[in-house]
């Protein structure tokens, strides 16, 4: 019987040692993996390496979620150098005539505009936030090291006693002799605490730690040597916090935030290119108005000279000559006003390009002449179809719709946080050697090999914060729905307005173009009749005034039509922005058939 019990104990002891050895091997592999990761990623590097690592992640994250329907991918490098602000350097970029074309202006604005740069940086920041959230679900290594030297005295007390009996009296006398020996000691010690923590997609948290200490006694009678503590802790939620949807909520939201910011950036690009081109054309319009005022002044001066000759020949009354001179004075005043308006608008446009206001250049008026010959055409689909296309393609509305989905998902997350917390916990420590840690820097724990599996329960007795969070999540959902509803109504209003504006601009463009041609022809005929004294001065001045106003209205109609067309495509979400910042007219028929625009 005793032999059987002994064999049983030996068998159990052998199995126990086998399990511990297997556990130590597994932990060693895990720790070595963590140390390799630590050595490859956690060591000190250069600032350039930090920046390059962040750039690599951010740009790849944006690339992964970019959809062609958002627009052709542009240069998103936030470190791209801006143009020089030196006037002489800017002049070298312009053609010999010093005129800045529309494509060049848009390219400069895309590269130089301060708000555009900020929007690129906002996109980069959101992508960088995703990097931080993803890091939570990756092994997070740590390593802490300490070393030191100490000197101390050890005191040994030696007590000796001698007992003697006094003869005759019978008393016993004890003589105590106490001596203390002081020994000077010193020791070197070092310790390290390395490992990693990680959050899994199931909600489990795993931590691996290797704590090591070494003590070297130079003098004295104190144990020395090396000790280490290898441990692992795994905590798996079974109720509260369990499941991929809950555990990955931070990552899900961070990835969706990148998508939202990409849409926001591309929506900004659509608005930005329309604003830049519109302002360019408005400046060109004022430049044409200035030229029109100059021509008007020259024509009136020419008319005045002809009338003066007729007056001197007594073929025309003197008061009509005075009336012609009054018109000439008014023309000079209109020219001075047009000059001021043009110079002011050009300086304001320079701010859009982020160029110094004192930079000297002109805009290319041939762009306006090209627009004069631009053929008008029908949109290709009715107003209701334009509204449907906008609802499908507007990126800001897509963000609002997806925000409602986020709010619904967060309600489930809030409800989960109210539940009972039930965690399955596994913990194991394996210690080799038994040595005191030097100091308290790391606090290496002494102990025996420990294996433990258990459960931890946190009953929902006090979940006031979580219950309030749930109620707020319900409110957030209702607010998100109202915001989506408001944005959708705003989109419909903008499209209907843009549709009407474009139709009006289309008709006005055609009418004013025809009116400008008639006014020009009428002026030529009236001046010809004046030379033969077959018409009065008032008819000539009226014809010149009508020609001047007709050109103003014609130019205004051309610019209004071009801007109205861009705004219509922008408000329907169909505007395609090219990488260089320019835009191209979309295929409205194909866009109307697209039913999956949100990426």
Please give a structural write-up.
The chain is of the alpha+beta class and 599 residues long. It has a domain at 143-199 and 204-240 and 422-458. Helix content is 59%, strand content 19%. The protein has 14 helices and ten strands. The chain has helices at residues 2-42, 47-65, 87-93, 102-112, 114-136, 244-247, 249-312, 318-352, 366-372, 383-393, 395-416, 464-531, 537-571, 588-593, and strands at residues 99-100, 140-165, 172-199, 205-219, 225-237, 362-363, 421-432, 450-458, 576-577, 583-584. A six-stranded antiparallel beta sheet has the order 2-3-4-5-7-8. The protein has a two-stranded parallel sheet with strand order 1-6. It starts with a helix and ends in a 6-residue tail after the last helix. 26% of the residues are buried. Mean pLDDT is 81; it is low at 1-16, 217-224, 432-447 and 595-599.
Distance between the termini: 77 Å
Task: Provide the β-strand percentage band.
Answer: 15-25%
Strand order across the largest sheet: 2-3-4-5-7-8
Q: What count of helical segments does DSSP give? A: 14
Run of helices and strands: HHHEHHEEEEHHHEHHHEEHHEEH
Poorly predicted parts: 1-16, 217-224, 432-447, 595-599
Helix content: 55-70%
How many whole angstroms does the radius of gyration measure? 43 Å
| Largest sheet composition | 6 strands, antiparallel
Sum up the overall morphology in one term: elongated
- What is the quaternary state of this protein? single chain
Number of strands: 10
- For the residues shown, what is the average pLDDT? 81
Structural class label: alpha+beta
């Amino acid at each position: 019987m005793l032999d059987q019990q002994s064999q049983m104990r030996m068998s159990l002891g052998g199995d126990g040692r086998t399990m511990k050895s297997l556990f130590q091997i597994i932990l060693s592999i895990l720790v070595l993996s963590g140390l390799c990761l630590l050595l490859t990623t956690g060591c000190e590097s250069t600032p350039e390496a930090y920046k390059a690592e962040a750039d690599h992640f951010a740009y790849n994250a944006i690339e992964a979620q970019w959809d062609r329907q958002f627009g052709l991918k542009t240069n998103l490098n936030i470190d791209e150098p801006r143009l020089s602000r030196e006037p002489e350097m800017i002049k070298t970029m312009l053609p010999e005539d010093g005129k800045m074309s529309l494509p060049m202006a848009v390219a400069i604005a895309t590269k130089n505009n301060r708000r555009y740069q900020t929007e690129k940086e906002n996109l980069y920041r959101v992508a960088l936030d995703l990097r931080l959230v993803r890091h939570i679900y990756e092994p997070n290594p740590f390593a802490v090291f300490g070393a030191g030297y100490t000197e101390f005295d050890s005191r040994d007390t030696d007590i000796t006693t001698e007992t003697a009996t006094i003869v005759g009296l019978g008393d016993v006398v004890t003589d105590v002799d106490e001596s203390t020996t002081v020994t000077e000691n010193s020791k070197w010690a070092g310790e390290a605490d390395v490992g990693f923590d990680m959050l899994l997609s199931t909600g489990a948290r795993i931590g691996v730690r290797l704590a090591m200490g070494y003590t070297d006694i130079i003098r004295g009678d104190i144990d020395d040597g090396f000790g280490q503590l290898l441990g692992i802790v795994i905590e798996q939620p079974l109720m509260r916090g369990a499941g991929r949807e809950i555990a990955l909520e931070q990552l899900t939201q961070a990835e969706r935030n990148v998508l939202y910011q990409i849409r926001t950036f591309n929506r900004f690009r659509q608005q930005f290119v329309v604003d830049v081109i519109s302002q360019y054309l408005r400046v060109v319009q004022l430049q044409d108005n200035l030229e029109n005022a100059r021509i008007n002044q020259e024509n009136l001066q020419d008319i005045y000279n002809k009338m003066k000759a007729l007056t001197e020949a007594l073929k025309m009354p003197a008061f009509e000559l005075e009336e012609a001179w009054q018109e000439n004075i008014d023309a000079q005043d209109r020219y001075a006003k047009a000059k001021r308006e043009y110079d002011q608008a050009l300086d304001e446009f320079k701010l859009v390009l982020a160029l110094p206001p004192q930079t000297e250049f002109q805009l290319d008026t041939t762009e306006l002449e090209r627009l004069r010959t631009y053929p008008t055409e029908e949109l290709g689909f009715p107003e209701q179809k334009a509204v449907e296309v906008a609802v499908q393609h507007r990126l800001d509305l897509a963000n609002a719709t997806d925000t409602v989905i986020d709010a619904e998902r967060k309600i489930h997350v809030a409800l989960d946080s109210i539940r009972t917390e039930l965690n399955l916990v596994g913990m194991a420590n394996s210690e080799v050697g038994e040595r005191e840690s030097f100091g308290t820097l790391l606090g290496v724990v002494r102990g025996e090999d420990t294996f433990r599996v258990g459960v931890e329960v946190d009953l929902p007795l006090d979940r006031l914060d979580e219950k309030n969070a749930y109620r707020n999540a319900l409110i957030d959902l209702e607010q998100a729905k109202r915001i989506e509803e408001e944005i959708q109504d705003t989109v419909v209003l903008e499209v209907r307005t843009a549709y009407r504006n474009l139709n009006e601009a289309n008709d006005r463009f055609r009418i004013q173009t025809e009116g400008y041609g008639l006014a020009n022809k009428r002026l030529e005929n009236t001046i010809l009749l004046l030379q033969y004294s077959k018409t009065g001065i008032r008819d000539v001045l009226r014809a010149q005034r009508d020609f001047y106003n007709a050109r103003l209205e014609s130019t205004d109609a051309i610019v209004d039509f071009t801007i109205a067309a861009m705004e219509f495509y922008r408000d329907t979400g169909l505007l395609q922005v090219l990488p260089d910042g320019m835009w191209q007219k979309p295929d409205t028929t194909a866009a109307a058939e697209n039913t999956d625009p949100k990426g």
